[in-house]
Design brief:
The structure is a single chain. The radius of gyration is 17 Å and the shape is elongated. 42% of the residues lie in helices and 18% in strands. It has a two-stranded parallel sheet. Strands 3-4 form a two-stranded antiparallel ribbon. It is of the alpha+beta class. It has two domains: 88 residues, Rossmann fold; 38 residues, no CATH class. It is built from five helices and four strands. The longest helix is centred in the middle third of the chain and has 16 residues. GO terms for molecular function: ATP binding. InterPro entries: ABC_carbohydrate_import_ATPase, P-loop_NTPase. Keywords: ATP-binding, Nucleotide-binding.
Length: 131
């Protein structure tokens, strides 16, 4: 059963490995992320918490991970993405809550101005007219 799951995950998540005997720690960073994603999404979670989901990945692997998070969100899973990557946040989020120095700086809707989000990320509070 495990071997069948691995083969299916390898195909569905485009995991590049020499075989089922290869240890996850010997895979590239992108393929390690895909293994974790496959493991977590295989159980069809109600909530997915992804912390820095594409940090350190090459462009192709990062785009794939983002695509899978979007598919998961669109299938009805609540996704909480924690990231310092503004582009990633803008692409994946329905709402953006920015925390700086342990304080909530503001909550913005999808499609908000990236400059406003970036300002919040640097510690600038939202003005009442911007909220």
């Amino acid at each position: 059963m495990v071997e069948q799951n691995w083969t299916e995950a390898q195909q569905e998540y485009q995991i590049k490995a020499t075989g089922g005997e290869e240890k996850a720690r010997s895979l590239s960073g992108g393929n390690q992320q895909k293994v974790i994603l496959a493991r977590e999404l295989n159980n069809e979670p109600q909530v997915l918490i992804a912390s820095q989901p594409t940090r350190g990945l090459d462009v192709g692997a990062a785009e794939y991970v983002r695509k899978k998070i979007i598919e998961t969100r669109n299938a009805g899973t609540a996704c909480l993405v924690v990231s310092a990557d503004l582009e990633e946040i803008m692409q994946l989020s329905d709402r953006i809550a920015v925390i700086y120095g342990g304080e909530l700086m503001g909550v913005l809707p999808r499609g908000s101005d990236p400059l406003t989000v970036g300002s919040l990320m640097m510690g600038k509070r939202l003005e009442a007219s911007e909220a």
